[in-house]
TrEMBL record, chain A:
GO molecular function, one term: ATP binding
Membrane association type: Peripheral membrane protein
SUPFAM superfamilies reported in the protein's UniProt record: P-loop containing nucleoside triphosphate hydrolases
Keyword Nucleotide-binding: yes
Subcellular location: Cell inner membrane
Residues covered by the ABC transporter domain: 7-258
Protein name: ABC transporter ATP-binding protein
PROSITE patterns to which the protein is assigned, alphabetical: ABC_TRANSPORTER_1 (PS00211), ABC_TRANSPORTER_2 (PS50893)
Automatic annotation (TrEMBL), chain B:
Compartment(s) where it occurs, according to its Swiss-Prot or TrEMBL record: Cell inner membrane
Domain ABC transporter: from-to ranges: 5-255
Gene3D superfamilies with a match to the protein in the record: P-loop containing nucleotide triphosphate hydrolases
UniProt name for this protein: ABC transporter ATP-binding protein
Keywords: ATP-binding, Cell membrane, Membrane, Nucleotide-binding, Transport
GO molecular function, one term: ATP binding
Protein family per UniProt: Belongs to the ABC transporter superfamily.
Source organism phylogeny: Bacteria, Pseudomonadati, Pseudomonadota, Alphaproteobacteria, Rhodospirillales
UniProt cross-references to CDD domains, sorted A to Z: ABC_NikE_OppD_transporters
Alphabetized NCBIfam families for the sequence: oligo_HPY (TIGR01727)
InterPro entries referenced in this protein's UniProt entry, alphabetically: AAA+_ATPase, ABC_Ni/Peptide_Import, ABC_transporter-like_ATP-bd, ABC_transporter-like_CS, Oligopep_ABC_C, P-loop_NTPase
Topological relation to the membrane, as annotated: Peripheral membrane protein
Pfam families attached to this UniProt entry: ABC_tran, oligo_HPY
Length: 329, 323, 307
């Protein structure tokens, strides 16, 4: 796989408000590390799934890649062109090539604008002449399978699935190279969620797009992605081809996550629990391996030493001292 | 076997500016004692209306056209205010989707759960607190004694949902109604809450009614399943009937759509074509006719018959199955 | 491209603009209809339209020159010639009330309009701009609101001298902090919403985000606040004029009429009614309209209130 998008050693930390005494003593503002040393690669035409519990930093990572959150350090390169630093200007170019579909389809549309104006807005903002604005709007609506009279509606007049389609139209209007979709199926019924995912797949084939799908819906990820990255507490703990990971998860967290998904089969009821407790607060990041507090295989080494990235024989990236050997590991 | 809850021929309409919405039509449902019943359906199927009707908290523009909701042989819909107050939270406890809204944000958890028990006159303050601590230990909240003095916002979503379940069980209700109890939670927390409910099922001798759109959740927990579509019950049966021998085309399609059910990886997921009909003017025939792959002329004209598939335990309404 | 007229008529932008204007007019008309269905709102609407009509056409409606002195006929009781009698200098009270209406409306509308513009600009800058500027502006707003209003008004009038312009300056500077703070609060809560993030991800400039996306979403509540402020401003103008700090005496204002009436209350009580009556009607009218407008534009609020 040749890397098309390459994210290297990205660090993001949020500055916390300082107390008066620390301002007077001129202490450095405390930071909360939200992303730690995140690296990712995405090949052309590939779909990468970004999976983890809420609080794992997946949305932050998605927003950092589009330059909505400035990184402390690290680089993002697309097709060989490198963007670094935290100046907003630097991301201008990147944002035209990488577009974003937001989590809440209705709330991510400006409430007092009509759909027609909303989906042609990317052209106006980026000074691209499109001739007849209305015709372009109709063309885009047609592309995502919405009737053209929707151009005159307001966002609150749409259903979740329809608003999601408008989100797809807006994201694809400028023909980007990469689309990042944040929870594209959140809040949708199973029968509608398939329609949105199929639309995205069809457009991927037609327009030669690469996708990053951020989600916690593992069932969706299994069918729609080729690569998978699992995040925990702001770090990627395992990355590799989706099929391999579903077949043989190597990181205990990956396995726990896969096992937690309820099976729609009454014969497969479980009576044990794979994982207990919740993701710890970022303020209280554990020592050693971040996952050791919930890991059933944790040993003394895990509590003391932070594991480094290693590559397994089949080309998977992994951050664990004692990776699982087999499926039943 | 006795039924904790029995719904007979329930029809509920909503009066709106643009006409009368027929949200529920002739719904029949039984929740047997000590069993877990799941109601499955997508948005617009009438789950939430049914839920509000069971606790008699329908919105002002709702009209009960006909039908009864029997709890211990009394109709909840015509019950006196006094009896209702005793019923809600005491005989019937509820757990909602959003654990954030269950608790009052300005009171400590301990205060709220002590107040919940005000009907137990025989328990004094100390005993009430002791009871809460016992329940918290049961649902897996660490350091329950300290946690009692904290406020709801100091807990995570998963913890709040555990507390909501603890609060519901504190009353030792005959029926626990859970509306999408795991939808707002992560998979890992969902698994823990399901595990908890499964454990509860054995200890607690009441019945549970779970309303959800997630097939995985019902498969994990339920004994009986009711499938709803556009305000009607389209199929009812045991969990095995529904998952292994689905009969109604909608049930089949719903099972086929779930990406978790598909064994083989596929680039394009199956979907159900079309939209739910407008419930102001429901079609004269079968409600699912416009989206059904096996539709015939009969389906669009006459209402489908009830087809009994196994001694009244498993049935569905469909012309195609009746042939 | 063909030059036939059908393609011209379908010009999308013009089409869109027309649709927009039509939709806006329709929504304004709907609001008016909704207000007139509520009895309190209908009364408010009637009073306010009448007052504004009088303010506009005062010149044509006045039977006499409001400053025409006739000492022979001073403090006369109402007659068919002088509907509201005459004042201590024999001027026709009815004409003076009409021209006073114009003064009151001029001051109120101009100053609230200016205060709204100022509030929007400062509020948006404060909410969307850099943090240091926000802190500075909030400090200024807070210090402004902590000044006792009458003291502030008297200080400004002492420096600039009484008159219509001074009055407007006082009212504008007293109203801006409240408006700006409200716009700022709304901007702050909207600025991190998903649709603003979505605009930023499309490379939208700050100007575009502020004018096309923030502004339309914050003005609605400001209009309601401002309409509720009208009676306050009318009272303020009358009050300051009564004290001799507003409209200069030969000119008529409800406040100066009241002041004249107050001095000669033993001789003619009619003058007090001539000055006070319109003031009461205007205040009530704008209050009723404002409340009804709020209910019409924000139905959620009404529901909560009635329960």
């Amino acid at each position: 796989m040749t890397a098309f998008l390459e994210v290297r050693n990205l660090d993001v930390s949020f500055v916390l408000p300082r107390s008066i005494s620390s301002i007077l003593l001129r202490n450095k503002a405390p930071g909360l590390d939200v992303l730690q040393n995140v690296s990712l690669t995405l090949g052309k035409g590939e779909t990468l799934g970004l999976v983890g519990e809420s609080g794992s930093g997946k949305t932050t990572l998605a927003r950092t890649i589009t330059g909505l959150i400035p990184p402390q350090s690290g680089t993002i390169s697309l097709g060989g062109r490198v963007v670094s630093g935290n100046k907003d200007k630097a991301f201008h170019w990147l944002r035209r090539e990488i577009s974003m579909m937001f989590q809440d389809p209705i709330a991510s549309l400006s409430p007092r604008m009509r759909i027609g104006s909303l989906i042609t807005e990317p052209f106006i903002i980026n000074d691209i002449s499109i001739g007849n604005r209305w015709e372009k709007a109709e063309e885009l609506l047609d592309m995502v399978g919405l009737p053209t009279e929707f151009a005159n509606r307001y966002p609150h007049e749409l259903s979740g699935g329809q608003a999601r389609r408008v989100g797809v139209a807006r994201a694809l209007a400028l023909l980007p190279k990469i689309v990042i979709a944040d929870e594209p199926t959140a809040g949708l019924d199973v029968s509608v969620q398939g329609e949105i995912l199929n639309l995205m797949t069809r457009l991927q084939e037609e327009l030669d797009l690469s996708y990053i799908i951020v989600t916690h819906n593992l069932a969706v990820v299994r069918h729609t992605t080729t690569q998978l990255a699992i995040m925990y507490l702001g770090q990627i703990v395992e990355q590799g081809p989706t099929d391999d990971i579903f077949e043989r998860p190597s990181h205990p967290y990956t396995k726990a996550l896969l096992d937690s998904e309820p099976h729609p089969d009454p014969a497969k009821r479980r009576d044990d629990l794979q994982i207990k407790g919740e993701i710890p607060s970022l303020f209280l990041r554990p020592t050693g391996c971040d996952f050791h507090t919930r890991c059933s295989f944790a040993q003394d080494k895990c509590r003391a030493v932070e594991p480094d990235f290693m590559t397994t024989e089949d080309g998977r990236l992994l951050r664990c001292h004692f990776p699982l050997q087999d499926t039943d590991g | 076997m006795n039924n904790a809850l029995e719904i007979n021929n329930l029809s509920i309409h909503y009066q709106t500016d643009s006409g009368e919405v027929r949200a529920l039509r002739n719904v029949n449902l039984k929740v047997p004692d000590g069993k877990v019943v799941g109601i499955v359906g997508e948005s617009g199927c009438g789950k939430s209306t049914l839920m509000s009707a069971i606790i008699n908290l329908l919105s002002e523009n709702a009209i009960v056209k006909n039908g009864k909701i029997l709890f211990e042989n009394t109709d909840i819909l015509t019950m006196s205010k006094h009896r209702l107050r005793k019923l809600r939270g005491y005989d019937i406890a509820t757990v909602f989707q959003d654990p954030m809204t269950t608790f009052n944000p300005v009171m400590t958890i301990g205060q709220q759960l002590t107040d919940f028990q005000h009907r137990f006159k025989e328990r004094n303050r100390q005993q009430k607190r002791q009871k809460i601590i016992e329940m918290f230990e049961l649902v897996g909240i660490p350091d329950p004694a300290q946690r009692l003095n904290q406020f709801p916002h100091e807990f995570s979503g998963g913890m709040r949902q555990r507390m909501a379940i603890a609060a519901a069980l504190l009353m030792n209700p005959r029926l626990l109604v859970a509306d999408e109890p795991t939808t707002a939670l992560d998979v890992t927390m969902e698994a823990q809450i399901l595990h908890l409910l499964r454990k509860m099922k054995n200890d607690f001798n009441g019945s549970i009614l779970i309303i959800t759109h997630h097939l995985g959740v019902v498969a994990e927990l339920c004994d009986y399943i009711t499938v709803m579509y556009a305000g009607e019950v389209v199929e009812q049966g045991t969990v095995e009937d529904i998952f292994y021998r689905p009969s109604h085309p909608y049930t089949k399609a719903l099972l086929e759509c779930d990406p978790a059910v598909l064994k083989r990886k596929t680039r394009y997921l199956p979907t159900i074509k079309g939209r739910i009909p407008d419930l102001r003017t429901p079609p004269p025939g079968c409600v699912f006719a416009n989206r059904c792959s096996k539709v015939s002329a009969q389906c669009t004209q006459t209402a489908p018959p009830v087809v009994d598939l196994s001694d009244g335990n498993h049935w569905c309404i469909c012309h195609e199955v009746s042939k | 491209m063909s030059l036939n007229s059908t393609s011209h008529a379908r010009s999308p932008l013009r089409n869109n603009l027309l649709v927009n204007i039509k939709a806006h007019l329709a929504s304004i008309w709907n609001t008016v209809l909704q207000i007139s269905r509520d009895p309190i709102g209908a009364l408010g609407l009637f009073l306010v339209t009448t007052i504004i009509f009088i303010a506009f056409f005062a010149d044509f409606l006045m039977p006499y020159d409001p400053n025409q002195i006739n000492v022979l006929n001073r403090l006369a009781d109402p007659t068919w010639e002088h509907w509201l009698g005459t004042d201590n200098l024999g001027r026709d009270s009815f004409s003076r009330v009409l021209i006073g209406t114009r003064v009151a409306m001029q001051v109120a509308i101009v100053s609230i309009g200016l205060a709204m513009v100022g509030g929007i600009v400062l509020g948006l800058i404060s909410g969307y701009g850099p943090k240091w500027l926000d802190s500075l502006l909030v400090l200024i707003f807070d210090s402004m609101s902590s000044l006792p209003m009458i003291m502030f008004a008297m200080a400004v009038i002492t420096v600039l001298g009484p008159g219509t312009y001074t009055l407007i300056i006082v009212i504008v500077s007293v109203s801006i902090p409240g408006y700006a703070r409200m716009i700022r609060a709304q901007t702050l809560s909207l600025k991190n919403s998903e649709f603003i993030l979505a605009e930023r991800s499309l490379n939208a400039s700050s100007g575009r985000i502020i004018f096309n996306h923030l502004l339309p979403n914050v003005v609605g509540s400001l209009v309601i606040l401002a309409s509720m402020d009208m009676p306050v401003v009318i009272m303020l103008e009358a009050g300051l004029s009564f004290l001799g700090l507003g409209i200069k005496p030969p000119d008529a204002s409800w406040g100066t009429i009241l002041n004249d009436g107050y001095s000669f209350i033993r001789d003619s009580p009619v003058l007090i009614i001539a000055g006070g009556g319109p003031l009461i009607l205007a205040t009530l009218g704008f209050t009723f309209l404002g409340e009804s407008l709020r209910d019409a534009l924000d139905p959620k609020l009404k529901k909560r209130g009635s329960k």
